[in-house]
Amino acid sequence: MRVAAIDCGTNSIRLLVADLPSQSDAPLVDVVREMRIVRLGQGVDRTGRLAAEAIERTRVALADYAEQIRTLGAERVRMVATSASRDASNADDFRRMVLDTLGTAPEVISGDEEARLSFAGAVRGLRGAEPPYLVVDIGGGSTEFVLGTDGVDAARSVDIGCVRLTERHLRSDPPTLAEIAATEKDIVAAVGLARETVAVEKARTLVGLAGSVTTVTALALGLDAYDPAAIHHARISRAQVAEVTERLLTQTREQRAAYPVMHPGRVDVIGAGALVLRVIMDEVGAESVVASEHDILDGIAWSLA
């Protein structure tokens, strides 16, 4: 059966059209997998509302996705909207736009459901890594912590993300030491909140999801171009993450944009995303992180089985 999954987060909107396998232990067969930076969460941390221009950028991307879904003949469609649309006072405007454009209403899911879908997408097919897994999904507005082995034992979503923290603190180019310190303080506090629910010390493997993690991994590996196959399930050390984070936070926007692995829509927020990953590794004592290209988008697709 062919299905379509859409993940609309604070920073990006992504589409996966895939064929579900007949055997439960077989992988998804990708037909289309793509991502666009629409920055839906622009200004939400400050205003509490979705900006009209952000909704319009999302509508344009979604209209193209809807056409691809129809053309490719997906039988089931599920769209999940996460942090920005949970927080916004005008979320109903966004919901109406999606219904008019896609023909299917978005599910504005809770942080816990977001965490569970991310875990399902991330650990299926993970080989050679020792459980329990701590899956950390670093988004634009929130970060999910999920602990489990075959299923989820505990999960917590906290309000730290690359867009939220950039808008809140990292306003200089490059950021000042004071801005970085304020960001670190917020991240440490958020990890403390996650620890109230998730026993992170029980994890044997840290698995990192989303664009901040995969971009840091690409930089640590020294790739000449963004290569999902090389990044997926690559393991990088805490020292490598620290080196990349320090480099990004001391560079200008122009210098960060020059990396061949850097998506243009991630240039201004990658410093914050890398810092979230580095501080999490420090706080939970993880010596390495396994990057996964499979995440909530894959979890959404599997949920349609």
TrEMBL record:
Residue ranges of every copy of the Ppx/GppA phosphatase N-terminal domain listed in the record: 28-300
InterPro entries: ATPase_NBD (IPR043129), GppA/Ppx_hydrolase (IPR050273), Ppx_GppA_N (IPR003695)
Pfam family, one: Ppx-GppA
A GO molecular-function annotation: pyrophosphatase activity
Protein name: Ppx/GppA phosphatase
